[in-house]
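A quick aside before the break. I want you to see a complete sequence-to-structure record at least once, exactly as it would be stored in a machine-readable document. Don't worry about memorizing anything.
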Amino acid sequence: MSVSQRYDRVSRILHWLTVPLVLVLLVIGWLMVDMPLGLKRFDTVNLHKSLGVLVLLLTLMRLLHHWVIRPAAQLPENPLAARLAHRLLYLCLLGLPLSGWLMSNAAGFGVTVYGTATLPVLLAENPFLREVFSALHQWLGWGLCALLAGHIGAVIWHRCWLKDDVWQRMRPYD
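That is the input. The structure line, written in tokens, reads:
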């Protein structure tokens, strides 16, 4: 595969930094809802929020980088299904942290990143909106799980059955 058909190094680094964070966030999110109230749950929720903010920042960096370098990219055009799946992945990667932030605010809580920086409060405490953003956060989480399964499945399909070079475009190593 020619160098021009691979994603650039920054795109690949941002992608592979996002992957483990998202997986950890999904596991933490799943586990913390069943934890009893207490310090352990409080710490776990704060870790979840901090990692979510990190994913939000990485996603914004990925989008900005993509928009800036797009004219220079020589990648082949993706089929409609791949473009739609990628857009939906980005929607989830933006929507999950934003809905979590709004859910926290609507519940009367702030979002503090690793105990150092506090994000601005975007809305006042509101039990109805807390339920709305909680439901949205859950649906986006399940949607992200489905999209990730499809994304990983598509990589396996391309690599094992189609035996094409799609994996080569984003692989983490040179």
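Two observations worth writing down. The chain has one domain: 3-170. The chain has five helices and two strands. We'll return to this after the break.
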